[in-house]
Design brief:
With about 190 residues, the chain is mainly β. It contains no helices and 13 strands. The chain has strands at about 1-10, 20-35, 40-45, 50-60, 65-80, 80-90, 100-110, 115-125, 135-145, 150-160, 170-175, 180, 185-190.
Length: about 190
Amino acid sequence: MRQRFFIIVVLLSPATLRASEVNVDSWSLSSLIHAHGVGFAGDGTGAVANPFHKVDHAALPSPGGATSTVDAEYSASWSGDNFIFLIEMTHAAAGNPLSLVTRSSANIWIVPEVDSTLRIDAEYNYALGPGIRTALMETTIFQENASTGEVFIYGYQEYAVTLGDPPVGQFTLDSPDIPLPAGSRYLLGYR
């Protein structure tokens, strides 16, 4: 099973945006392979930097004698015009489909200091092997609320299962413009 996933998250402001007007509080970026009875391998980071660039690689001998791999390349920057987060991932999973998972995911906390607009563009191409296998693309946005916790703002999910869907396909997301009022803390997530 081979999967390629590209995601671009762009945060734009209707007014002139300075670097100090979008703060990335924290993030957790990870790519992992988990095979029941074998173990797991992963790579990732929690270190925020501007600009940011990192390449992750993880490999794990999987049930059936093959090796599964996850590769992810992250680039991020925020400047006077926008906040851009770009990721390109390649997953190659091999082995028993009932006991093997490969995944890339992130939680990114941001605080815009001016009213802003978020847009997510993503493309996920998958080619699933025989057996029971699933391809999934999911993005979510939550707003932090001091009294009620996290409040859901936007979500997208699409998946395919080899039992009922073609083993080869593509998911695409061109989100609407999502307003993010200034001063709140937002959680941007994907997997």
